[in-house]
Amino acid sequence: MTTAVTEDAQDQAAPQSLWRKIWEFPLFALIVALALVVAAVFATGAIIEAIGRDALSPAMQDVLPAVLVVGLVFAVMKLGVSRLGREPRDDLPLAIGPVHLALGLGLGFVIFALVVAVAAVLGVYRITGWGTLEGWLGVLMSAGVVAGFVEEVAFRGIIFRWVEELAGSWAALMVSALLFGFAHAGNDNATLFSSVAIAIEAGVLLGAAYMLTRSLWLAVGIHAGWNLTQGLVFDVAVSGFEMNGMVEAQMSGPDWLSGGAFGLEASVIALVIATSAGLVMLRMAAKRGEIVRPLWVKRDKPAALPA
Predict the structure, then answer these.
(1) Pairwise CA distance, residues 91 & 74, whole Å
(2) What's the whole-number mean pLDDT along residues 272-277?
(3) Torsion sign over Cα 75, 76, 79, 82
(4) Which of 64, 193, 254, 259 is deepest in the core (most CB within 10 A)?
(5) Element (H, E) at 249
(6) End-to-end Cα separation, the chain, in angstroms
(7) Taking the domains of the chain in order of start, what are their residue ranges?
(8) Where does 13-79 show beta strands of DSSP type E?
(9) 247 pairs with which residues across the strands?
(10) For the segment 45-65, what is each residue's pLDDT rounded down to a tens digit?
């Protein structure tokens, strides 16, 4: 026992090489991780181009790109990103994946169903008949599978993770939320308020889900469930893009209450409800001790073993 402890102490005392310090620096890990994910996305495009989109059936044009990009990004996360940084870890553990994903889908549904319910009570959302669900498969793949998985990998699994390792949890939450919100600024019908609203309501909610579980599965489920509920179930525009849902619905009233052409995500209703859910999870994360301090603040270290 004494010999093992002595060897561990000598390993810790040995100076790290400059390359090792660079490799383990959080921002370097962040850049490498993003590059790997971007490469997976471009590889998907290259594969589809090589196959020829016109050679695919309409259904496969929706399904194959989604399956490929999620599969390649998943492989990149498991084989590459999980090995990066000072404290390598796997943010997509398979053991808890199904349970957390299902829980997230349910939470996404409940949160947005509550948003719609409040909007209906206030008279800004009204069902006018049954919908057509036209293009449902494309919405399921793009707004649900791809957006839910790939965006969470990028914004929580990479940006949040390594900003947190460098500057702490609160800085990571702020940076990832702002980047996530303004990544939607180029969407159809986007406004400054819609970008700020998504940054706050979704940025806090999804960041808190990641902090609480230290896994991406819950956040992926919430993200996908939120998008599919508003688009395919309630016929609400998803981040500015019109959808055909199970019902036909009309929005009316002031933009601050209805979200305007962007959809209910840009409403005060969603801002209050989703942010409140996020704050509840943040409180739970804090109680579990999941708040990480900045790298320059002395962090707790495990007690040394006796010689």
Answers:
(1) 10
(2) 97
(3) negative
(4) 259
(5) strand 247-251
(6) 8
(7) 92-287
(8) none
(9) 130
(10) 999 999 998 889 999 999 999
